[in-house]
# Entry
Amino acid sequence: MSTTLAARSRRFADRVARASRAGSAEPAEPPAEQPPHRELVRRELAAYAARIRLDALLRTHGTPLFVLDVDRVTTQLLALRQELPDVQIHFATKSLPHPAVVHAVDAFGASFEVASRGEIDLLEREGVAIGRCLHTHPVKTVADITGSYLRGIRTFVVDSHGEVSKFHGLPSDVAVLVRLSFPNPEVRCDLSSKFGVAPERAAALVEHCLRAGLRVAGFTFHVGSQTVSVGPWMRAIHRTLALMRRLERAHGIRFDTLDIGGGFPVPYDEPVPEFSALARDIRAALAEAPSRYRVLVEPGRFLSAPAMTLATRVVGTTERADGC
Ligand SMILES: Cc1ncc(COP(=O)(O)O)c(C=O)c1O
# Structure
């Protein structure tokens, strides 16, 4: 991120913090003297285009041209590692299933989150150690589960009773994470209506897994893609850890994994808080977790979006009354 955009992100984070302290849901508008965020983005894109000599690329390849800058994946991974040093990174493969990206993530020492057979095929072709990957799709066929197991995956996700019996007969080194649903209507992409069990119904699902002889390693959630305030993570982490403590006491079991999913935002047309500000509060919330827990993240957009630029030709422009 350029210093100008980074400075704006910092100011945005400060405003959100001030607004939430004042009990207001809406952050204040940016100060009038600032250039609009879109203008800053435009300037940053122009500088980036000059840096990568986009004009020469366009002369060679024409438009539309999709430019993949894998170094930016590594830069984002470094930011994650620096700001959340104790978490294990599992790149959400579906966000950019490209061999060059797989290599960059693997070379960095991070692992992968997969949700389909095609993603495992890709990782296998690129020589990734599949045993470190997570399979996070809460709805699978028995063949998906068995095939993934045979290829090395040991950790899966469930969010319903019906899914549990599909694990019957697999060796005891299989474990599941129970996916919780935390609705987040403010986010660009709220996944909670599609996936996850409500926290108040999670105990029954864990008990069902235990009765079926399926080991529950812990919990996972996704607060929604492009989440621009830390509140949803703080609440979800706090509630999940309380649930884990309660279930450990009630059943005499020990969980070992807390997966806080993806959702980390990137600046498009609107400013987003600086990642270091989000991460600082996430670290504080995670301080409640027992040290024996491994904490996982599954970033998709945060690693992929900055690496992708689409160059297209503008054929014509006009201004319409509705502003669109
Ligand atoms: C299970 C899971 N993990 C991680 C991600 C990545 O989310 P994001 O791109 O918001 O980081 C997704 C996105 O759909 C997901 O479904």
In short: The chain has twelve helices and ten strands. The chain has two domains: 3-25+33-65, 69-308. Residues 231-251 form the longest helix (21 residues).
